[in-house]
Structure to design on (448 residues):
């Protein structure tokens, strides 16, 4: 009974203090109760705040580490994506340059009907010099058609499938092209010379051949169009007892890095068709 | 291994060799991946499977090459028969036979093809071919053999049938 009375008194006292505090607080911003409470609570608050600072910093650092990780991951992805884009753009630029070169070349030979092709394979033996291109009979490719790049003659079609063809390179042992020296117009036959490159043979002893002379197709025989660059003379072999001179030639085209070529579908002079005249009424 | 697995694997390797191997040029030559794989096959899976692999590998390389097809296939099969015979009859040399085998096989295949070339043309700079094609190919194939043989041996030990040994 005494105990319950005590509890009621305590409750009433607390309620009274709260009431007085509320009344005083509403009457004046600074009052003795608030001051006293503040004096008691603030040191405890400081202490708790001081004790909590390292934990808060740790939590902040955890948050920032997580944010940094996320940011790092995002930056990595962005970097990777940008790097890929750079590679794609560089490839596009190279392709663009190559196509421009091809286009410029096409402009110089308007009478040629050319078909662009991509190199998709090479001879696996490496003793024989062949390429495989992604154009075949369905694209109009036929055996013996010349294959060129803007740099010069590549070779000729040796086998045709429906969608792919095999190109015999100039450097193959079986390759033979009728050529001439640009400077002196000396004619000969340029053959593949396995292990060295190309050899221009059957040049008359009286003809002039010098190192650095440019070798072009002569067009004789009609297998190749005339005036295509074949290569450059690097060595002349002339023996008094021999019937002919020979010249070692390095090809104008770098066959190991070939990616795109052009098949010459036809190279005869195209007759110019008369323009239709507008008829009057 | 079942034949229907041997055929696509070896054919794919030959296509890989003709298509992408120029990207892996070393010492100025492309890897003779098909030859190395068929030699590894005979060493690991025995003569019967090895000869089949050589036949398929040779046929695939021949189909992709502009060279004499029958000669390419025959040289592949001959190499595998030779290696299989040596491996069976020279057990004491088993450790070095894979490396010896690839050197001999590379030489054999290249010599056969160069010999064929010499019959088709009088223009042949043999020293240039040996220095530019044969010797680098020997070295490259030897490097490939070390990698592929050891890798294939491990795979076969894990996936292949258990070997019976004396206790």
């Amino acid at each position: 009974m005494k105990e319950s009375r005590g509890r009621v008194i305590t409750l009433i006292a607390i309620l009274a203090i709260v009431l007085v505090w509320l009344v005083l607080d509403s009457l004046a911003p600074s009052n003795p109760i608030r001051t006293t409470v503040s004096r008691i609570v603030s040191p405890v608050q400081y202490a708790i705040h001081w004790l909590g600072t390292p934990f808060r910093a740790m939590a902040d650092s955890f948050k920032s580490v997580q944010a940094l990780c996320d940011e790092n991951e995002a930056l990595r992805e962005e970097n990777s994506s940008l790097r890929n884009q750079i590679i794609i753009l560089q490839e596009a630029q190279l392709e663009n340059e190559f196509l421009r070169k091809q286009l410029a070349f096409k402009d110089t030979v308007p009478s040629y009907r050319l078909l662009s092709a991509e190199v998709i394979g090479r001879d696996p033996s490496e003793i024989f010099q062949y390429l495989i291109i992604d154009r075949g009979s369905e694209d109009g490719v036929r055996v013996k058609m010349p294959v060129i790049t803007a740099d010069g003659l590549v070779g000729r079609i040796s086998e045709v499938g429906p969608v792919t063809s095999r190109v015999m390179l100039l450097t193959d042992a079986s390759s033979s092209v009728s050529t001439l020296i640009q400077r002196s117009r000396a004619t000969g036959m340029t053959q593949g010379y396995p292990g060295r490159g190309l050899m221009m043979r059957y040049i008359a002893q009286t003809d002039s051949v010098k190192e650095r002379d440019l070798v072009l197709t002569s067009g004789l025989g009609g297998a190749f169009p005339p005036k295509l660059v074949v290569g450059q003379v690097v060595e002349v072999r002339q023996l008094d007892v021999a019937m002919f001179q020979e010249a070692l030639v390095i090809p104008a085209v770098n066959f190991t890095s070939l990616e795109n070529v052009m098949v010459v579908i036809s190279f005869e002079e195209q007759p110019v068709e008369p323009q239709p005249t507008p008829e009057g009424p | 291994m079942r034949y229907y697995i041997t055929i696509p694997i070896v054919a794919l390797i030959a296509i890989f060799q003709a298509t992408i191997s120029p990207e892996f040029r070393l010492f100025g030559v492309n890897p003779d991946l098909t030859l190395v794989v068929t030699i590894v096959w005979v060493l690991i899976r025995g003569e019967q499977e090895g000869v089949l692999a050589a036949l398929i590998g040779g046929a695939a390389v021949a189909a992709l090459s502009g060279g004499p097809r029958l000669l390419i296939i025959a040289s592949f099969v001959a190499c595998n028969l030779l290696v299989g015979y040596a491996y069976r009859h020279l057990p004491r040399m088993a450790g070095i036979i894979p490396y010896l085998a690839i050197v001999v096989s590379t030489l054999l295949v290249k010599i056969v093809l160069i010999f064929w070339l010499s019959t088709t043309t009088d223009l042949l700079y043999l020293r240039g071919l040996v220095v530019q094609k044969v010797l680098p190919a020997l070295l490259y194939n030897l490097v490939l053999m070390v990698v592929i043989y050891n890798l294939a041996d491990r795979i076969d030990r894990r996936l292949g049938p258990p070997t019976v040994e004396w206790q």
